[in-house]
Amino acid sequence: MHLNSEEKAEIFEKYGKSKTDTGSPEAQIALFSVRIAHLTEHLKSNHKDYTTARALKALVGKRRRLLDYLIKTDINRYRALIAKKELGIRK
Question: Are 56 and 43 in contact (CB under 8 A)?
Fold first, then answer.
């Protein structure tokens, strides 16, 4: 994977509650969004890489399920996450 532990800690600190908060839905959604953006760029130049395309679809599905969970549990946290445009989530 293209992210090292410092970059992941930075993502978790920005979107989670702390650097070590790796389990909150917001932190996981942010990490998935970074990985999705990376895989999308990879597929633009390697359009026949079907394994990566399959992994990208799986990541998008995981992120969607986490967003659905966040809608059901706390709509305010969901709206705050969607308002952050740097994640690239449209809704």
Answer: yes
The number of helices, as runs of H, and strands, as runs of E, in the chain is: 4, 0
Q: Give the CATH number, domain containing residue 56.
A: 1.10.287.10
C-alpha 52/C-alpha 13 separation (Å) is 28
pLDDT tens digits for range 49-79? 999 999 999 999 999 999 999 999 999 999 9
**Count of domains forming the chain:** 1
Sign of CA dihedral 25, 26, 29, 35: negative
State the residue range of the domain holding 78: 5-87
pTM, two decimal places: 0.90
**Interatomic CA distance for residues 12 and 9, integer angstroms:** 5
What is the rounded CA–CA span in Å between residue 60 and residue 43?
14
| Cβ atoms of 32 and 63 closer than 8 Å | yes
